[in-house]
Design goal:
Layout: E1 30-37, E2 44-46, E3 49-51, E4 69-76, E5 80-89, E6 92-95, E7 108-115, E8 120-125, E9 128-134, H1 135-138
Antiparallel strand pairs: 1-7, 2-4, 3-4, 4-5, 5-6, 7-8, 8-9
Biased composition (Acidic residues): 158-168
Family: Belongs to the calreticulin family.
Organism: Thamnophis sirtalis
Length: 176
């Protein structure tokens, strides 16, 4: 069965939801795929999907409802034309650090998010990979592997010149 949602006004919250049985993708690939068509010249709005916990009260669903994954295009003004990938880790949401440009041409586009059990991901638009990577590298889930120590300082006699002449250097004799 297919469902769709057609919106008529900018800057208005529209939602449709469907309950499905709880599942785990542990050790499996999770694929989220759907189509979006922005028929009108959109000034500000999104066409994204959110995966909520199975205990979500659908009648009270709103923009503040806890979700596990948010994925899809978001357009606002001339500056924001991006694909969101926001993942919930330990009840905190983390947006992807990379910029992914969405399509804004009035045609129908297929958006696909693939999350693999090896902690890699890829995003496809119209079945073409537009970005891929490793979850740990592209989200700030974990603390940085390396932290700069503010107490570490360069020695006072440190020279920042890329190359320094060696006063004892001599040119070798040319042998013919």
């Amino acid at each position: 069965m297919w469902f769709g949602l057609q919106t008529t006004e900018n800057l208005k919250f529209y939602a449709i939801s469907s309950r499905f049985k709880p599942f785990s993708n542990k050790g499996k690939t999770l694929v989220i795929q759907y189509t979006v068509k922005h028929e009108q010249k959109i000034d500000c709005g999104g066409g994204y999907v959110k995966l909520f916990p199975s205990n979500l009260n659908q009648k009270n669903m709103n923009g503040e409802s806890l979700y596990y994954i948010m994925f899809g295009p978001d357009i606002c003004g001339s500056d924001t034309k991006k694909v969101h990938i926001i993942l919930n880790y330990k009840n905190k949401v983390y947006p992807v650090k990379k910029q992914i440009r969405c399509k804004v041409d009035g045609f129908t586009h297929l958006y696909t998010l693939v999350l693999k059990s090896d902690h890699t991901y890829k995003v496809k638009i119209d079945n073409k990979v537009v970005i891929s990577g490793i979850l740990e590298d592209d989200w700030d889930f974990l603390p940085p592997r390396r932290i700069n120590d503010p107490a570490v300082k360069k020695p006072e006699n440190w020279d920042d010149e890329a190359e320094i002449d060696d006063p004892e250097d001599t040119k070798p004799e040319v042998m013919l």
